[in-house]
């Protein structure tokens, strides 16, 4: 149950700003499927437009990091934040982009390991080594 | 300021269990440098041994994910958890493993973006689409 | 599914401490509705009494911040903490106190933005400017 | 100590993209002061441009929420995320926008209260009341 | 709905590595019940083996902390992390190890209190007192 | 550097509400030392009074959980929340109440382990077993 209404295609078609974003999502993804995140965000066209524009730029295919690596990072952040929806959508996206079970297993292992050492470091309040400084 | 004492090399050398781990870290990394995390963990030899054994296995070079990708995931988790020490140590490690400034910029961009969409999804409590289900 | 039993009105009526709190909640809110949070907390009368007393004081109508602003802050914290129940209850409360869709859209936008810049700042470990110091 | 270099004014002036953003920040804020967040982000001009464009839009003066309320929400999120820098910068911004000590006290009180009830709700896994549903 | 398939007993029996772990869990707990966490982790035998080995060592009965205290700490961390599954499984485990309702009420009270003071401290960015230093 | 001024004893003595709380803290702890948290909170007497009253009740000596166990839980929550000040103050308090190094090592181990399994469970979105239900 969401705190907002999820827009149907008919409703989206009737609002030029929402329709423009939904059309662009469909074109960019070469798929008719619009997931619930965008249907929820449709209630706030300004946030919808900015979020989609930003996401398209950040997740662009021709970057310095390949698309699958970006999805792995997205899953890692979403897991640390406990965002159930985001974990599901980005795990599905990673699989669609070719993530193997072996890669997924290592992703989970690194996430698990990082959470342990983060906690140990924080619990003992370990001071940063000078060797890690950017310059010098 | 830590909540525990950081062990010097002399102290580590005097404790067989700690010495064994420090020796193995130095061998694995081909470097004499032992960072503060391990010097803090030396107060608890059992945790030290288990953590190093686990980390060595998880971050192993010959996995399904390359070592740099693992460091990027580690930075992402550490940032979401706000672990200052871990951010410093793993950003330094990623650079040592060849992370370019362009890759770092995209890593930051994905982390930033994920935190925004995580928050929007959580704020609106968006229900998971059936299309994301594992089977069917 | 909760980890505790949710108290019915009949059970609450049979326990003087719980009854007193439930009566006071109903009087303060001018409504018969007691939401599940209080029905769960009824298992621990001491925590129930203290939590209600604190909440009544903190959310008091005649403060320096108006009631709607307090609800917006409550939603912001609950979203950052990923507390699904709290997001639902306080979004409903904010709407009952007059939150418009435009205000809600800006609230989501600020929450989303703050999570991005929080992550960027944390990822780069930006040092605090001296200009932000309280005194001089 | 940051994980990146903080750009001086001279360096920023020598890079057209960074200079354009810094000029716009100074114009928008009617102040010469550029805080460290932007000096750190200057290392990544694309992220710098997008973040400033988004922030200007989100924190715009003529919205449905007044500028001070937005700062209070920003402080609440930053506190929940434990972002020290962001807490300092937005508390300073809130004071510059007129936050009184009484308002600050209530902000802290609401943040503290929300964190308690978030934790109690999460600890007991309280199910969402049907009464909080958006429609019906 | 999980992002992975939950293994049945028949599937586990057909995989020697998974079977060995499941057998050991049953022996250690003197119960036939294998909870979903392990059935999900079975997809990644290496992570399964390491996690079970670590957990068995950490939660060992003959430690410096008694088993119930360890479960209370586990619930506290899981609540702070918002891990619904973990809260359920460890609250059930704590009850199985004798946690009384009075103890549970105090656990919730301490968790709630800690979240409040954590937030107040973080919001005001209180500097650490020298008196808390480890040596001197 | 705090976002508020830390009150000196002279300032506290000049404000009856603050003085009353500081006096009570000193009496309860049988020590003249007032740590920075209370000196910061003195800026907001209402929050100061409520927080101290709550803390005194929650951490009371004659509860169902012994004082040391409560401190261990406090450290666990503070670590998960990344509250540096709180980790320092409650680790010092736990040691003052008799926490041994062996107990501290196990506390860290449980905190580390819980963060790993929390992350694995969240990453795989494991559904709660029916066996964990409170009744039936």
UniProtKB/TrEMBL annotation, chains A, B, C, D, E, F:
Residue span, Carboxymuconolactone decarboxylase-like domain: 50-126
A GO MF term: peroxiredoxin activity
One matching Pfam family: CMD
Keywords: Oxidoreductase, Peroxidase
Superkingdom, taxonomy of origin: Bacteria
Protein name, as recorded: Alkylhydroperoxidase
Organism: Methylobacterium terrae
Lineage: Bacteria, Pseudomonadati, Pseudomonadota, Alphaproteobacteria, Hyphomicrobiales
